């Protein structure tokens, strides 16, 4: 299966400074939690605590599945399928 | 005689001034009258606050409050274009209010030069209908949200950093609030401030303009398109806008939920572990004394020509702006890489001695983390029998400017 990942609000810095990624994973679907752990273990080169905290995505990051808030899709327990796009958006505070 | 020609309260000069806006579909006479009757509080007279207040003044919002305790600095002017060089040192709230009145003297613009805190927020917000978040720090954002919900006011929120911006509307028509989306504040070390990460003028210009537009849509009752329950994301570098659907009001939200537990304002700097400011204050020492060196101590090392390694851990583009002589730049994000450690070892291990390693950054914050990282990498490995002396320079290059050499550039 192919999963598209989008990173914004500065999170791309954790992922080789690339905003868009396409990851190939085995199987037809994957629980989001497993995907997040896999991303942390395989792609976050420095400071993984800026991405995952207490077993989930750290506070201040909004997660979207196909452009919809993950809260409407089951949160960390959502199931990601082939072709889905998961976006991780760090909320901004500056002005 | 003019009463023969019209059946509304706008006078001829108002018809003339707002003509282009009046004839825009969705505004009309009713919309303009609503704008003139509206009271909007803009929290922050910075990069977002400037375009917000100026456009609202231009549009004829009858009462605009501007709250900011800060003063104008020349380093603000690349993005805060409601101020100008003549206003250096003046209160931002007053400076921006003056600019708004110069644009439109027929409305009322009220500067509030108080600090926006748990003690002042509700009193200020009570005098207005709509609140606009143009602040620059996470503690103020939670404060504005809670105060707006408690006072039952609509909140138009915008934020920006580097090349990115975000806009949404909270507590509107049973929509979510900031806490519905972000019930837990981000860990302080994950928050990048504009004073650290940078921001471009046109980015805050775009986001502030979008916030002003949301205010106008809300006042003129163009409710369907209001960005409630949706978040607009602007990536200026990629040249993309994207609007995503976010959760609705959360029944369990502590402030806007069905059974709210937060019924008065709290201590937000404590809640967020960060101050009501984007500005950098003096950095506290978090590491042991033996890992700390002062700027004066480092100066005497230089004066006595003692051999050492000076490691500058700022990002590359900051290092390019200015650096101390003979420093080696390895950004903190690259420090734990094997290649970086190898470079440092090669620099530090001289023929028959190990040179001390001094670490510097902008303000003496990241250099503390760097000292810890390096200590773990260099001194804790069992294979290594070498013992490295590692110290961070307290107050960093800012301290160098203040204590040693005022000609060292500050940015
Ligand atoms: Zn809420």
TrEMBL record, chain A:
Keyword tRNA processing carried by entry: yes
One Gene Ontology cellular component: cytosol
Post-translational modification: C-terminal thiocarboxylation occurs in 2 steps, it is first acyl-adenylated (-COAMP) via the hesA/moeB/thiF part of the MOCS3/UBA4 homolog, then thiocarboxylated (-COSH) via the rhodanese domain of the MOCS3/UBA4 homolog.
Pathway involvement of the protein, from the record: tRNA modification; 5-methoxycarbonylmethyl-2-thiouridine-tRNA biosynthesis
PTM sites of type 1-thioglycine: 95
Keyword terms: Cytoplasm, Isopeptide bond, tRNA processing, Ubl conjugation pathway
Residue intervals passing through the bilayer: none
Localization, UniProt: Cytoplasm
Cross-link (Glycyl lysine isopeptide (Gly-Lys) (interchain with K-? in acceptor proteins)): 95
CDD domains linked: Ubl_Urm1 (cd01764)
Any GO BP: tRNA wobble uridine modification
InterPro entries: Beta-grasp_dom_sf, Mopterin_synth/thiamin_S_b, Urm1
SUPFAM superfamilies given in the database record: MoaD/ThiS
Broad class of where this protein is predominantly found: cytoplasm
Reported function: Acts as a sulfur carrier required for 2-thiolation of mcm(5)S(2)U at tRNA wobble positions of cytosolic tRNA(Lys), tRNA(Glu) and tRNA(Gln). Serves as sulfur donor in tRNA 2-thiolation reaction by being thiocarboxylated (-COSH) at its C-terminus by the MOCS3/UBA4 homolog. The sulfur is then transferred to tRNA to form 2-thiolation of mcm(5)S(2)U. Also acts as a ubiquitin-like protein (UBL) that is covalently conjugated via an isopeptide bond to lysine residues of target proteins.
Record PANTHER family: RURM1 PROTEIN (PTHR14986)
Family label: Belongs to the URM1 family.
Name the record gives this protein: Ubiquitin-related modifier 1 homolog
Organism: Heterostelium pallidum (strain ATCC 26659 / Pp 5 / PN500)
Automatic annotation (TrEMBL), chain B:
Localization per Swiss-Prot or TrEMBL: Cytoplasm, Cytosol
Amino-acid positions noted as binding Zn(2+) in the UniProt annotation, renumbered to this chain: 177, 180, 253, 256
GO biological process, one term: tRNA wobble position uridine thiolation
Record-linked InterPro entries: MOCS3/Uba4 (IPR028885), Rhodanese-like_dom (IPR001763), Rhodanese-like_dom_sf (IPR036873), ThiF/MoeB/HesA (IPR045886), ThiF_NAD_FAD-bd (IPR000594), Ubiquitin-activating_enz (IPR035985)
Annotated binding of ATP, by residue: 47, 68, 75-79, 92, 136-137
Origin: domain of life: Eukaryota
EC category: transferase
Function: Plays a central role in 2-thiolation of mcm(5)S(2)U at tRNA wobble positions of cytosolic tRNA(Lys), tRNA(Glu) and tRNA(Gln). Acts by mediating the C-terminal thiocarboxylation of the sulfur carrier URM1. Its N-terminus first activates URM1 as acyl-adenylate (-COAMP), then the persulfide sulfur on the catalytic cysteine is transferred to URM1 to form thiocarboxylation (-COSH) of its C-terminus. The reaction probably involves hydrogen sulfide that is generated from the persulfide intermediate and that acts as nucleophile towards URM1. Subsequently, a transient disulfide bond is formed.
Family classification: In the N-terminal section; belongs to the HesA/MoeB/ThiF family. UBA4 subfamily.
Full protein name: Adenylyltransferase and sulfurtransferase MOCS3 homolog
Organism of this sequence: Heterostelium pallidum (strain ATCC 26659 / Pp 5 / PN500) (Cellular slime mold)
Taxonomic lineage from the root: Eukaryota, Amoebozoa, Evosea, Eumycetozoa, Dictyostelia
